[in-house]
Amino acid sequence: MNNKLCLVTGANAGIGRATALGLAQKGAHVVMICRSAKRGRAAQQEIIAQSGNQQVDLLLADLSVQAEIRRVAAEFKQRYSRLDVLVNNAGAIFTTRQESADGLELTFALNHLGYFLLTQELLPLLLASAPARIINVASGAHYSGQINFDDLQLRQGYAAFKAYAQSKLANVLFTNELARRLAGTGVTANSLHPGVVGTQFGRNNRGLSLIIRLVRPFLRSEAKGAETSIHLATAPELVTTTGQYFDDNQPKRASDLAYDEALARRLWEESEKLVSRSASQQVS
Questions:
Q1: Average pLDDT over all residues of the chain
Q2: Out of 1, 51, 127, 279, which could bridge 24 as a Cys pair, Cβ 3.0 to 4.6 Å?
Q3: Catalytic-residue membership of 164
Q4: pTM of the predicted model, to two decimals?
């Protein structure tokens, strides 16, 4: 991975931090995007110390906020001339319904639209760097997911897992549609299930945090959870593999809905409207 530039979101903790560390250990130039400056800088210094790789940079952004995504993407393009691997990893689950700064349900805004908009903003650089790879961290929760276009923001009947499963199905649908649209460009797009990992995921949700603490001894380590992301980013044999869902480093069939091309196109169109609305609001 020498001379490869890799961007990892949500890289200050959990799977994101383990992914950034693994890529740095393989010699990549790693750029971390984190929301917290304090936690981001601490993780950055830990990764440098543990990997012996000084090429670990930090950018700050709240990826639930579309203005922040556009700003950090512009900063990235100003600072770097290439992008070989984009790992969309930042995500969360919320026990109560909340809205982002853009007035969107927070799980959907962060977990799906964060991936969608950041990828769109960085796509010209990825195309110019081809062969390049886009890796979207989804979840096995997507098997339970539905995309409810009549209530995409879940204003009625909100439930934490329902919102999370919808966002993770959106990740896989987005990945598959992106792969179709990028066919022949040299830029690949794949999604993955990292396993059920004992991370700080859910730390802001008291009930969920308690459950995670109770079952943590039975969960995967963060390093184990990051293995598939690292494999997709680095394996030479996967340079042309695209539009696949991976689990434990192996391709696996996703849910039936994940292969619904009409559903994926409609989700793409709705996502474009939601990010365009935000941009127009900023201009006005």
A1: 92
A2: 51
A3: yes
A4: 0.91
